[in-house]
Fold this sequence. Notes:
Layout: E1 2-4, E2 7-10, E3 36-41, H1 57-68, H2 74-90, E4 93-100, H3 106-119, E5 122-127, H4 150-159, E6 167-172, H5 175-178, H6 181-194, E7 197-202, H7 213-218, E8 226-230, H8 236-244, E9 248-250, H9 253-259
Parallel strand pairs: 3-4, 4-5, 5-6, 6-7, 7-8, 8-9
Antiparallel strand pairs: 1-2
Amino acid sequence: xxxxxxxIAAIGPExxxxxxxxxxxxxxxxxxxxxxxxxxxxxxxxxxxxxxxxWSLFQYCVAMFGTLxxxxxxxxxxxxxxxxxxxxxxxxxxxxxxxxxNQLTPAHTDALxxxxxxxxxRAQFGYGGSMKQYVECLAPPFRSTAHTDAAExxxxxxxxPSDTGLITLxxxxxxPDLSVMDVVKADWALARELGIRINIHLGxxxxxxxxxxxxxxxxGLLGNDLTFGHCNLLTDEEMKVMADHGVTATVTPEDEAxxxxxxxxxxx
Length: 268
């Protein structure tokens, strides 16, 4: 494999190159592949690694929404995102969607971004608001009425205007599982106005029987700028509707099995 200016220029068994001008790396016994991409990772929660290994999904929600999440300092967030990014790089993940949903203040947000920048990983930073906005989700009807901070999202878009930079901006929205539809519509309209992708959790085991895709279809909200996380409880028909509208899905099989989301989705 030939790399020129940090770009893979050629792959083959007998590449011609002027050895005097090249650095040769002996990779015998190694598998050389491009960096992997993790499409769903909460980087700042690296600080809690192992703490919730026996939690159910609802126990996680109670702990994060009501107890742990609101007590993170900006310094905690910087450290979590830096360590989380370095941990990803160490395991061969060079690109990540950071599902960041504990931005208590603008200072917390800036600390999270700077943690990613300091590690040098390629990331889409998913602005997800504050854990305090999730507290309503702990009691019936288990949906939040809190809107995303539009001014903060606009500030971040000004900071990251490019969609091809090392760090880009996305929206980590609560979606219809965890928000009333008026909030869903407003949040997604904001993201689409700014031209950023939308990533949500949908079809999780904590809400069996709750309509997932149909309300979005009926509201005309489906599009190819959406990624739905987990999708465990979605039917094949719902998955087909997603595919027909260009919606992508991301799954986290180990976490989903451990926390009781439901069986991980698989192609077919």
